[in-house]
Design a protein that fits this description.
By secondary structure, the protein is an all-alpha fold. It is 63% helix and 2% strand. Strands 1-2 form a two-stranded antiparallel ribbon. The two termini are 44 Å apart.
Amino acid sequence: MYCSGSVMFNFYSITFIFIIISNLITRIYCALIAPFTEDQVIIFNLGAQLYKTGEFPLYGARATGVESATPGALQGFLVALPFWIFGSHPWAPVVFLAILNFIASLLIYYWYKRLFPTVHSLMLLVFILFAPWSLLYVPLWNPSYLPLFFILFFWGLLKLFDSPKSFSGSFLISFSLLCCLQLHLSVVLMGLTLAVALIFRFLTRVNFKGFITGVIAGGIGYVPFLLNYGSLQKTTHSVQSAIAFNFERILEFPKFFFRYLSFPTGDTLRFLGQPHGYVGSIKVFQSDPYLLIFLVPGIIGTVYLIWVGLKYFFLKEFWKSIHFPKKTKLDKFHVISLLLPFLSFALYFFSPRGPSAHTFWILFPLSFFPVLYYLTHKTVLLKKLTAFKVVVFVVYVFSSVFYSVVGHRINTTEGFWDAYIQASQFEQPINSSFGVRSIHQFIHENNNKEIKISNFSPL
């Protein structure tokens, strides 16, 4: 018996490690093929400037589509930090961001394992780590840094639900809030989460020392801005330019809602044929018909999981449970999960742009909750595993990841690695893209001799 148990433990450990390593490699590859367009270049240059001059920026990168930026030096620091760690290699912030998202996914896994301990660990690990959205939503965008801080925020709530005077829980909440405030305007969704917890009295007290320590740690990035505040009164970096009321946003709720439900699964229009929708997808399959082999099981699984998430929000008994006394941490997060998507959409009435995925990507860590809650409460699907269920699950995950990643690679006009190759080969890439010129300038300014490479591909 002991020998059998030891063998099972070794099998589990080896499989667990294999999943983690393969996911990290996949994430780094996806980061290298991710688009490297103007938005990403602006963020890249923000960190490159800090690395070159040592002067911390006063603002993060400007918000997409508006002439505004959030105050704080955190984003510039997060881009410059990998240069200090790995050296003056242009790929450093790209790989570093992939590692951050990898860490965030592991924290998401352990958070859900605390809430749903009956779900098989390996299946839960694969389900979260290999969600196609999290693999492909990794360019140097402002929102790409958010999942890590939002799951830290949820860990803080979890600790405070267990122990109202938790130092670490109070620290994580204030620290993550202050960090996200420097990265993206969608930080207001964290404020909504906190509001729900306070209104329903899930939070009645915090550890004052922990909270203040988190404010100090998370607020360090504001020091350069505050020191120069007097001379910045007439700048154009006001976030007020990103606020405008528009009642017609109500028509975009289906887009927002179904995209949110797709976060833990896949979305073909996002990863295949973009930006040409179904027409672009058809062209991809015409040129690479073998992708259809993986598309079919991937789409079936994706549609099923979106349907499960939809049923979660339309079951009366789930909504009625809001009025019951909330004794467990699972009950409390259930209320947050039910209300937060609808409260979040209400904010779009005041947004100049519609609900594009990047504007609420911060909700990604919460998006698994509807599926897991429904499957554990209304079905026996996860209560007893069979070989058939495991095979079906593995086929779905592999298929959805494969067609998403390969299709995305086919469809990306210029990824980071493409720009990196070109920049390393041209002496003066004057007529090249903004991204190529930016990387070339970085190489030249930092006199990096090691990256004169030939036609090498990361895969």
